[in-house]
Design a protein that fits this description.
With about 325 residues, this protein is an alpha/beta fold. It contains eleven helices and 14 strands. Strands 1, 2, 3, 4, 5, 6, 7 and 8 form an eight-stranded parallel sheet that branches. Strands 11-10-9-12-13-14 form a six-stranded parallel sheet, sandwiched between helices. Helix 3 packs parallel to helix 4, helix 6 crosses helix 10 and helix 7 packs across helix 8. The longest helix is centred in the last third of the chain and has 19 residues. The chain starts with a strand and ends in a 13-residue tail after the last helix.
Length: about 325
């Protein structure tokens, strides 16, 4: 079977590329072919060893038997209402072409009242697999039946690398309030003065470059390659991240982590894993102490999330409990 995947792919965001890498690996291991919609099809095909088509080419939707919308945080309009309309239009077009569609391991929200109405209409009758409990609760409030999954990137296997217990990855994100970036910088300074090696890791080169100068006293690396991020996460003794996939790849690598949450999806993951987290702008003293004194997540909860991620593929592919087919035109 050819399985299509639609998400924020081909834009040099390590988190989204980690999702696609995990989805592609799992689908290929199950004997399926993978076709991804991408902003840079050539790069996506080369990076992940799959077929890719431009995300603005609607005829590409004819080339797959099943379309997975996700994973990621696509069903929100906090960043852009146009983004939400794009993903819902992909979903509607796939249904128009009578393709089976599954919303796959998404977060839901934040949504404006307008966005809620758009999502309620577009997702009616479509199998909905959400990656966190907060999103599942939100879906119920909107009257949308849903199943609980987990982020596919949790299934990525870390490389064999020697752990350096004194190495702390600090992962900021551009586009948040300046005080939060300042507090994360102070956190990095505290850790450095306590004898830790600090590496500031930027997961979206280009976009995150605007905050690099704020961490000029520390080593900085920028990469959109999820394999490199996973390697560094496996090598580190601790990870402090604003970005969701800094946390998820740390969890995949078995490295303890703490979050500085700029978005509900970050807080949701921290809560589900029992990890320490703060809302913006954060407290640098408490955050640095979490790393220095080894405040760990609940690894049993992490293992449960990984199992949920595996089972979500069974559900989406119809290999577990039956999923509803979206054959009607939307």
């Amino acid at each position: 079977m050819v399985v299509g995947v639609a998400g924020y792919y081909g834009f040099k965001n390590a988190g989204d590329e980690a999702i696609l890498e995990a989805i592609a690996r799992e689908l290929k291991a199950r004997g399926h072919q993978v076709l991804a919609l991408s902003g840079d099809p050539k790069r996506t095909a080369e990076a992940h060893g799959i077929r890719a088509a431009h995300r603005l080419n609607p005829l590409a939707l004819l080339q797959a038997d099943l379309w997975l919308l996700g994973g990621g945080g696509l069903l929100q309009d906090a960043t852009s209402s146009l983004s939400l309309l794009y993903y819902l239009s992909v979903l509607r077009a796939a249904r128009f072409f009578r393709k089976r569609v599954v919303v796959f391991n998404q977060s839901l929200g934040p949504l404006s009242p307008w966005g809620e109405r758009q999502v309620q209409r577009a997702l009616r009758g479509i199998p909905l697999i959400l990656r966190d409990q907060d999103s599942l609760d939100y879906a119920k409030r909107l009257g949308l039946p849903a199943t609980l999954g987990a982020d596919p990137a949790l299934l990525l296997t870390p490389p064999p690398v020697k752990r350096e217990e004194d190495l702390v990855l600090v992962i900021p994100r551009a586009g948040v309030e300046p005080e939060a970036i300042k507090n994360l910088y102070i956190t990095a300074n505290h850790l450095f003065h306590e004898g830790k090696q600090v590496l500031v890791l930027l997961l979206q080169p280009g976009y995150d470059d605007t905050i690099a100068k704020e961490f000029y006293l520390h080593r900085i690396e920028a990469t959109s390659d999820p394999r490199r991020v996973l390697y560094l996460a496996a090598q580190a003794g601790y990870v402090i991240s604003m970005r969701l996939h800094g946390l998820i790849l740390a969890a995949a690598a078995g490295t303890p982590f703490a979050a500085l949450s700029y978005d509900p999806k970050v807080a949701a993951f921290a809560k589900e894993t029992g990890a320490y987290y703060q809302e913006l702008p954060g407290d640098p003293i408490k955050l640095s102490k979490a790393a220095m004194y080894g405040r760990y997540p609940d690894w049993e909860k992490v293992a449960a999330l990984k199992e949920r991620a595996r089972q979500s593929f069974d559900l989406a592919l119809g290999e577990g409990e039956p999923v509803r087919r979206s054959r009607e035109r939307g």
